[in-house]
Structure formats: structure tokens, C-alpha cells
Design goal:
With 203 residues, this protein is mostly helical. It has seven helices and no strands. It has helices at 2-17, 26-53, 56-81, 92-103, 105-125, 131-147, 164-186. The longest helix is centred in the first third of the chain and has 28 residues, at 26-53. It is elongated and about 80 Å long. The termini are far apart.
């Protein structure tokens, strides 16, 4: 639960708050990258506990999604803080290329989020996790599926790569989803009743 809360706070601050600060400079960008780094540690803890609960093909799918998600966060840190190490030394064209590549992080992260969310949804539907988590996960999965449109969204629009849909809608739901997963995993695991087998009728 603590890891889920930590991730939600750190990630929301990095994705929602820091980009909205007026006059943000290289120092603010480095703070944003540090917050993403710490949020990655918290996320890895949540994912590890969740993976320990899952079984079968869903567990393997969850492992793949988790690996992709953590790797994408690492790459996002590179492109967030890298250009600030030598301020003013990149020409305009190179800076735009780096920024454009970095803006594709959140659109691509939708795929990893879906790979992680689907096993949680299936496990909740089986009765092992609270029903409210299953409903919330279904909403999150559908939103992330819709948000994949930001991969090809026109620049400057609501659905632009790295634009408002990624940051404010997807970012908020991502933080809320992993917070909910962390809380649900801290609760006692729900027991699923075994199916009853009818006794054969006596002659």
C-alpha cells in the first residue's frame, strides 16, 4: 500500500504538476526526472507484489507488461533530463528531435499499461481482488486503449503525443490505477468458493 501511495504521489507530481509550472527551467526538469526515478522504484515494488498473486498465462502477460513499463520509465528519464546537461549547446533542430522522441513516451506507455491492467482485471473478475478494483481497472483499460490514438495525434491538439490527453487524463488515471492496486494488494486476499459437485442420485 505504501508503495502504491508513493508511486501515485511521485508520478502525479512529475507528470501533472511539474510540466504545468510557469517558467520551468533545467533545474525543474532535473527534479521531474528525479521524481520519475523514485516513482519507478515504488512502481516496481507494486508490480512485484501483484505478480506474486497472479498465476497462469495472465502472470506471464503481467510480467511482460511490467518489464516494458519499467523500461519505458527509464527511457523517459533519459529524454527528460538528458538535454538539460548541456543547456544551449543543442541547435534548434536537434532539440526538437529530442523533444519529439521524448514526447512519444506516454503514448507508447499506454500499451504497457494495458498489458499490466488486463491480468489484474481478469484476476479481479475471478473474485480474488475487490470488485471495485475490477471496475476501476476496466475503466482504466478502456481509457488507455482509446488513448493509443495519441500515437498518431496531430501536434498541438488534445490528442497530440505528450499532450493534454496523455498528461492530464492518462496521467491521472495511471496514478489512480496503481494506487488502487497497491491498496487492494494490502487487503487480505479474497477466497473463491470451490464449485460444488452434485452427488449421484441413489438407486
Amino acid at each position: 500500500m505504501i508503495a502504491g501511495v508513493a508511486f501515485a504521489v511521485l508520478y502525479a507530481t512529475a507528470v501533472l504538476v511539474m510540466p504545468a509550472l510557469p517558467g520551468a527551467d533545467g533545474g525543474a526538469t532535473r527534479v521531474q526526472a528525479l521524481l520519475l526515478a523514485f516513482s519507478t522504484l515504488a512502481l516496481a515494488a507494486v508490480l512485484a507484489v501483484a505478480r506474486d498473486r497472479l498465476t497462469g498465462p495472465s502472470a506471464h502477460l503481467f510480467t511482460i507488461g511490467s518489464a516494458v513499463l519499467v523500461a519505458q520509465l527509464g527511457v523517459a528519464i533519459w529524454f527528460t533530463v538528458g538535454p538539460t546537461l548541456r543547456p544551449g549547446q543543442l541547435d534548434t533542430g536537434a532539440a526538437r528531435v529530442v523533444g519529439d522522441v521524448g514526447s512519444m513516451w506516454l503514448p507508447a506507455a499506454t500499451i504497457a499499461n494495458i498489458l499490466v491492467a488486463i491480468p489484474i482485471l481478469l484476476y479481479a473478475n475471478e473474485g480474488h481482488l475487490p470488485r471495485w478494483l475490477g471496475i476501476g481497472t476496466a475503466v482504466f483499460t478502456v481509457e488507455q486503449l482509446i488513448e493509443t490514438i495519441t500515437i498518431i495525434g496531430p501536434p498541438g491538439s488534445f490528442i497530440a503525443p505528450g499532450g493534454p490527453m496523455n498528461h492530464y487524463l492518462g496521467g491521472t488515471l495511471t496514478a489512480a490505477f496503481f494506487l488502487a492496486v497497491g491498496i487492494a494488494l494490502a487487503l487480505p486476499e479474497l477466497s473463491v468458493p470451490e464449485p460444488t459437485v452434485d452427488e449421484p442420485a441413489a438407486d
